TrEMBL record, chain A:
Involved in beta-(1-->2)glucan export. Transmembrane domains (TMD) form a pore in the inner membrane and the ATP-binding domain (NBD) is responsible for energy generation. Residues 346-357 have a biased composition (Basic and acidic residues). Pfam families: ABC_tran (PF00005), TOBE_2 (PF08402). Residues 4-234 form the ABC transporter domain. It is a peripheral membrane protein. PROSITE patterns: ABC_TRANSPORTER_1, ABC_TRANSPORTER_2. It comes from Bradyrhizobium archetypum. SMART domains: AAA. This is sn-glycerol-3-phosphate ABC transporter ATP-binding protein UgpC. Keywords: ATP-binding, Nucleotide-binding, Transport. CDD domains: ABC_MalK_N (cd03301).
Automatic annotation (TrEMBL), chain B:
The chain crosses the membrane at residues 12-35, 72-96, 108-129, 135-158, 186-210, 239-260. It is a multi-pass membrane protein. The lineage of its organism: Bacteria, Pseudomonadati, Pseudomonadota, Alphaproteobacteria, Hyphomicrobiales. GO terms for cellular component: plasma membrane. The keyword Calcium does not apply. This is Carbohydrate ABC transporter permease. Pfam families: BPD_transp_1.
Length: 357, 275
């Protein structure tokens, strides 16, 4: 078990810097999720930690040991791959025992550890099967089992849920979370799915273009996004954005000059900046009791989700979504009056997207 | 207007015709050879050829009596097994290295060597082997035949190694494997059928290769295919015995070719890797 420290890390492919300059400290026993869109460098970063990609510049420490240039085989980390990467010619038992065997672990101990991991993951009935005889979910468990038996310094997961169907994904997600609490080992998990990031992580690293946009707890990343990119990436459906201005002691939409019904306590940063981008999450719209207090919108599309209902509408020239109570029974063509919930709005700089404070 | 079933029927006929033509081209000489080996010697060269005759093994008996056929067969086996083993010994790690590093020029170099005419190697080898007194030795023949077997092994195995998902190699690295161990414990068991195909093809090509043995062997180390050439005399050619020899020489490659077909069909079963 160990902390992971990344200092001024640079990774280039030719002239292209996938990771221009990255610093990150992952504490011992912490469950950290790297999240970001395709090509943001999250998998590259994980592979660098694993020792599968060389570092162009910078330093990487696992525990107290500087591991630049140390091959993957000697880093004592375990990794679960997106395609599981099970050894097709070995039975499940051999897949799980292989790493221990390489380390010269006594047979009796190998047997005990494999069986303990198999019990933990409910794969005992499959120990004698080859990977091709297993379903996707079972293979996923075997891949995790192969990692668990090692008792490594850290677990690395490279989008391990992406090949599972939605139901199984939710189940395995919960199992990995429970496992992390039981094993108390440093875990780094890569995903492009922000729900996975939010539900599993102690802390989330939001990456874009190889740079850390925010590194914080899921709650903080959701409630206090550091910039417009993070605000737009975390949360589903995504946050709505509207260009706004401070005009005549009020916040107005830049597009049509209509007044935004915001409390003055939310407007401070805009008063200084003059203009910016207003961010409102779909769940942070409220239906105004008095139509005069809200912004009148016409519903374009209704998505009933059971627990709540999403309504799509145009506001100030932008498409937007609000999450409303299903008892409202909205219908396409209905007009509703919406207002942002007090204290739940976000303001971003209109040029660089950083949060306005 | 032609309807679809009629078109399908025509396509089927054309396919059959194509197969029949290919069969005639490939099988006619083989059938001719086998039938001739079973004819009485005076009928082998009869014109017009006889199609109805009383089969006899006299050509085979004559072949065994007049030539050290078994010795030649042993020579062929030593050279072929030796050169196939040599090809596998160096070709397997070479193919794996090319696949692992994704540096393909060494493989292209071996392919170029395979494409080059044998005489290109023959002359320098003859000089070199003569200088070290190795003409006629098995070593010289085995080394020269490795030029045939090595590229075959590399090029047959390269797609097999490439077919193993990279992540399987990476999982082995993370599990603690060195590159050598990855080859031994992970890659080799997964390309078993490829190795079988490579070995059989290398064997067949080496067995059938004529030129090197003709020049680099002597009376004691002559291989079957080179020895068969001796039946073609300046004055009289023993066609019956020659056909019997050719039939016997062709048997091992034919049997092995049938085996290759089975292996090729079975192919690699790596479907287990991805869900």
């Amino acid at each position: 078990m160990a902390s992971i420290s990344i200092r001024n890390l640079v990774k280039r492919y030719g002239n292209f810097a996938v990771i221009p300059d990255l610093n990150l400290e992952i504490a011992d026993h912490e469950f950290v999720v790297f999240v970001g869109p395709s090509g943001c460098g999250k998998s590259t970063l994980l592979r660098i930690i694993a020792g599968l990609e060389p570092i162009t510049a910078g330093e990487l420490y696992i525990g107290d040991k500087r591991v630049n240039g140390i091959p993957a085989a000697q880093r004592d980390i375990a990794m679960v791959f997106q395609d599981y990467a099970l050894y097709p010619h070995m039975r499940v038992y051999e897949n799980m025992s292989f790493a221990l065997e390489l380390r010269g672990t006594p047979k009796a101990e190998i047997d005990a550890r494999v069986k303990r991991a198999a019990a933990l993951l409910h794969i005992e009935p499959y120990l004698d099967r080859k990977p091709k005889e297993l379903s996707g979910g079972q293979r996923q468990r075997v891949a995790m089992g192969r990692a668990i038996v090692r008792n490594p310094k850290a677990f690395l997961f490279d989008e391990p849920l992406s090949n599972l169907d939605a139901k199984l994904r939710g189940q395995v997600r919960a199992e990995i979370k429970a496992l992390s609490q039981e094993l108390k080992t440093t875990m780094v998990f890569v995903t492009h799915d922000q729900i996975e990031a939010m539900t599993m992580a102690d802390r989330i690293v939001v990456l874009q273009s190889g740079a850390v946009q925010q590194y914080d707890t899921p709650e903080a990343v959701y409630e206090r996004p550091a910039n417009q990119f993070v605000a737009g990436f975390i949360g589903s459906p995504a946050m709505n954005f509207f260009p706004v201005e401070w005009r005549g002691e009020a916040v107005v939409f830049s597009q049509d000059g209509a007044r935004v019904p915001l409390g003055l306590e939310s407007c401070g940063p805009l008063r200084q900046a003059g203009k910016g981008v207003l961010g409102i999450r779909p769940e942070h719209f409220a239906v105004a009791a008095d139509p005069a207090d809200g912004m009148a919108v016409m519903i374009k599309l209704v998505e009933p989700l059971g627990s709540d209902t999403l309504i799509h509408f145009d506001l100030a020239g932008a498409s937007a979504i609000a999450r409303v109570d299903p008892s409202l029974r909205p219908k396409v063509g209905d007009r509703v009056s919406l207002r942002p919930q007090p204290g739940k709005t976000h303001l971003f700089d209109s040029t660089d997207g950083r949060v306005l404070q | 207007m032609t309807d679809a079933p009629t078109t399908d029927r025509w396509i089927r006929y054309l396919n059959l015709l194509q197969l029949a033509l290919a069969g005639i081209i490939i099988l006619a000489p083989t059938v001719w050879m086998v039938l001739s080996s079973l004819k009485p010697s005076f009928e082998v060269t009869a014109y017009p050829p006889t199609l109805v005759f009383t089969p006899t093994l006299e050509n085979y008996v004559q072949l065994m009596k007049t030539t050290p056929f078994a010795s030649y067969a042993v020579n062929s086996l030593i050279v072929t097994i030796g050169s196939t083993s040599l090809g596998l010994l160096f070709g397997i790690p070479a193919a794996f290295a090319v696949s692992w590093t994704r540096v393909s020029w060494p493989a292209i170099l071996t392919l170029a060597a395979r494409m080059a005419p044998g005489t290109l190697f023959l002359l320098p080898w003859y000089v070199m082997f003569r200088q070290v007194g190795m003409i006629g030795s098995y070593t010289a023949l085995i080394l020269s035949h490795a030029v045939i077997t090595l590229p075959i092994v590399i090029w047959v195995l390269l797609p097999s190694f490439d077919g193993i998902p990279r992540s399987v190699y990476e999982a082995a690295q993370v599990d603690g494997c060195s590159v050598t161990r990855i080859l031994w414990r992970i890659a080799l068991p997964l390309v078993g059928s490829g190795i079988a195909v490579a070995a059989i093809l290398a064997f067949v090509f080496s067995w059938n290769y004529f030129l090197f043995a003709l020049v680099l062997s002597n009376g004691d180390s002559k291989t079957l295919i080179a020895a068969a050439f001796n039946f073609i005399g300046e004055g009289s050619t023993q066609w019956g015995a020659l056909m019997a020899a050719a039939t016997l020489i062709a048997l091992p490659p034919l049997i092995l070719a049938a085996l290759v077909q089975r292996w090729l069909v079975s192919g690699l079963t790596l479907g287990a890797v991805k869900g």
